[in-house]
Amino acid sequence: MAEAGNSGGGARKRKMADKKDAGGARKLAPNSNWPAIKSKKNLQITRLKDSDLFTVPEFLSATESKAFIRAAESIGFVHQGSLGPTMGEAYRDNDRISVNDPVLASTLWDSGLSKLFSDIKIRGKVAVGLNPNIRFYRYKVGQRFGRHIDESADIGDGKRTYYTLLIYLSGSSKAKASKSELDSQKDASMVPLVGGETVFYGWRNNVVAEVAPAEGMALLHIHGDKCMLHEARNVSKGMKYVFRSDVAFA
């Protein structure tokens, strides 16, 4: 699977990681309660490593991000752990939902993501859409995802994933909090997020980029053979919510 927490090791350990990840997921049918996604115009790209790693600030609005959190919470998260590095899996401690929803994947892709990949080709293939396997992650205080790589996956019909898509649903925000939101900050999900940075490593474990979660920001990075080792750091305050999919090429 594209998101298996592979921390290294041989093929046997990689297969074990894939099996564990698939078995621990709660896979659900499409949800009709997703928020309406508006078309995105004038998206700005911040390149952190050429086209291999870049962010898109405010890809989702604050309203859309919060609506996704409410929808995910209404479904219910399931804890996701791992066997650990000694068994070929990265350390993993978070909560997770997996939904197979081609309509949601298509809606997000058509809202503006497709334009970001118009000039990117991999092995002669072009980006054609998102993996319909949509995942939501929730990190509470003390939770993190250790150093790992994301694997490329064959999703059928001649399509293979080559990029990871993360959209931070919580984090720093330019939007001012409403009075009701300020009053509800006694709820951990509304407390401002501290920690949870996504950190990418290059040669000799030098830090290539450290990305702090920002509400609505999309992060895209190449995965598979060229995937950089990366981790999700410990959350020290609040809750970190992430929307996850993959960009497929054909």
TrEMBL record:
One of its GO terms (cellular component) is endoplasmic reticulum membrane. Gene3D superfamilies: q2cbj1_9rhob like domain. It catalyses: L-prolyl-[collagen] + 2-oxoglutarate + O2 = trans-4-hydroxy-L-prolyl-[collagen] + succinate + CO2. It is a single-pass type II membrane protein. Its cofactor is L-ascorbate. Residues 129-250 form the Fe2OG dioxygenase domain. Residues 1-10 have a biased composition (Gly residues). Keywords: Dioxygenase, Iron, Metal-binding, Oxidoreductase, Signal-anchor, Transmembrane. Residues 1-33 are annotated as: Disordered. GO terms for molecular function: iron ion binding; L-ascorbic acid binding; procollagen-proline 4-dioxygenase activity. The keyword Oxidoreductase applies. It is found in: Endoplasmic reticulum membrane. PANTHER family: PROLYL 4-HYDROXYLASE ALPHA SUBUNIT, PROLYL 4-HYDROXYLASE ALPHA SUBUNIT DOMAIN-CONTAINING PROTEIN. This is Fe2OG dioxygenase domain-containing protein. It comes from Linum tenue.
